[in-house]
Design goal:
The complex is a heterodimer of chains A (191) and B (181). In chain A, 42% of the residues lie in helices and 17% in strands. Chain A has 7 helices and 5 strands, in the order ββααββαααβαα. Chain A has a 4-stranded antiparallel sheet with strand order 1-2-4-3, with no helix packed on it. In chain A, a hairpin with a 2-residue loop joins strand 1 and strand 2. With 181 residues, chain B is α+β, with helices and mostly antiparallel strands. Chain B folds into 2 domains: 2-120, no CATH class; 137-180. Chain B is built from 7 helices and 4 strands, in the order βαββαααβααα. Chain B is elongated. In chain B, strands 1-3-2 form a 3-stranded antiparallel sheet, with helices on one face. The chains are: A alpha+beta (191), B alpha+beta (181). Chains A and B meet through strand 1, strand 2, helix 1, strand 3 and strand 4 of A and strand 1, helix 1, strand 2, strand 3 and strand 4 of B.
Chain lengths: 191, 181
């Protein structure tokens, strides 16, 4: 499997996962235990209607995308495919993911063979390394330098600035300057 | 945001060749302390409707190699897949796969038929996407550009007079674009 460009070691003897621009990527393939269809379809259906299951993960502002897929179909699934993209170090992403959501991990990957449990995370990391097929080719059309956190900040900033533009239309230079100072205080953490 | 996943069996004995082909496509180099990220455009960048994230990877299913292609994108799924099928790189990639039974070279119309066949992409999925609903790649990049330009102006605003500040703010390309919307 294509896993990692050669020489992409982090110095600890463990290879970093493939990173493109700032985006990490994992593609994990796991075989399902027997009779797990209903359990997974229920989790998928619930998960697709609410973010309550993954709210702690979203608050990390690291993950960009996660996708779980049943193969070959939902009627007789034999494999669970998992893909994720995140920005940040893979040294912390999977362990943090496991640490803050151990029940969610068990809920989904408990349906697969050989799942060691999310805690301790060293075992989880070894398992993810073993099942990760890496990425052969990956791309994103986001501008270079973007990350999950930067994108969230930029989108929030844009709404503040749009209001500022509307509120300062036709304002005198003095009034503009006063409102500018207010804007800077409000948005400095987003820039 | 559209989501698609297509899994295609790789032709017998061609998995290694396909992995090598994928690994030689232009890719970014990971950043190091002394060297920033070098951005080399993917052959698909700009050739397809805007793509949030997409990947090709060879995976093992039932002891057989399969090509997994997944993408999160803006726009209509069929239009996206038609555009993908029209790229020479996609044709080259899927030519390693078991699509036709005639034993002849894969053609672009055959690839388009394969990719646009709903039976190939109606997989059961659970997707977590952290972007708010309706936010496109274009909207993300516009917001990133605004952030960068505004950050630059904030850096020099302290030494500017009110009139000059208002002028420079309204001259920022991202602000002009915002005012036109």
């Amino acid at each position: 499997m294509v896993r990692c460009p050669p020489g992409n070691s982090n110095g600890s003897g463990r290879e970093e996962k493939v990173t493109y621009r700032r985006w990490g990527a994992v593609t994990a393939v796991t075989k399902l235990r027997r009779c797990q269809r209903v359990r997974l379809l229920a989790i998928f259906a619930f998960g697709n209607t609410t973010d309550v299951l993954i709210r702690p993960l979203l608050q990390m502002k690291v993950i960009a995308l996660a996708r779980w897929t049943l193969w070959p179909n939902a009627r007789h699934p034999t494999y669970l495919l998992f893909e994720t993209n995140w920005s940040g170090s893979d040294q912390t992403y999977i362990p943090d993911f496991g640490r803050i959501m151990p029940l969610q991990w068990r809920g989904i990957w408990g349906a697969t063979t050989k799942f060691p449990g999310a805690i301790p995370t060293t075992g989880l990391m070894e398992w993810v390394d073993a099942i990760d097929a890496g990425v052969g080719h990956f791309w994103t059309d986001y501008d270079p330098g973007s990350s999950t956190q930067v994108i969230a900040q930029a989108l929030e900033l844009e709404s503040h600035v749009a209001r500022f533009v509307a509120n300062t239309e036709g304002a005198s230079a003095t009034e503009f300057h006063r409102r500018w100072r207010e804007l800077v205080v409000k948005v400095h953490r987003l820039v | 945001m559209g989501q698609v996943g297509i899994i295609t069996p790789v032709s017998d004995g061609r998995a290694g060749e396909l992995e090598a082909f994928l690994s030689h496509l232009p890719r970014d180099t990971p950043p190091t302390a002394g060297r920033p990220v070098i951005t080399v455009p993917s052959p698909f960048a700009g050739a397809l409707p805007p793509t949030h994230f997409a990947r090709f990877v060879v995976i093992e299913l039932d002891h057989q190699p399969h090509l997994l292609f997944t993408s999160a994108f803006d726009g209509d799924t069929r239009e996206y897949l038609r555009a993908l099928a029209a790229t020479p790189t996609a044709l080259e990639i899927w030519s390693h796969c078991h699509i036709t039974t005639r034993g002849q070279a894969l053609t672009a119309p055959e690839l388009e038929r394969h990719l646009c066949d709903e039976r190939n992409w109606r997989l059961s999925q659970y997707v977590v996407n952290t972007l708010p609903d309706g936010v496109t790649v274009g909207a993300v990049n516009r917001a990133l550009s605004l952030r960068a330009q505004l950050g630059g102006l904030m850096g020099r605003a302290a030494s500017m007079e009110a009139t000059a500040l208002a002028h420079d703010f309204r001259q920022l390309p991202a602000i002009q674009a915002l005012m036109r919307r």
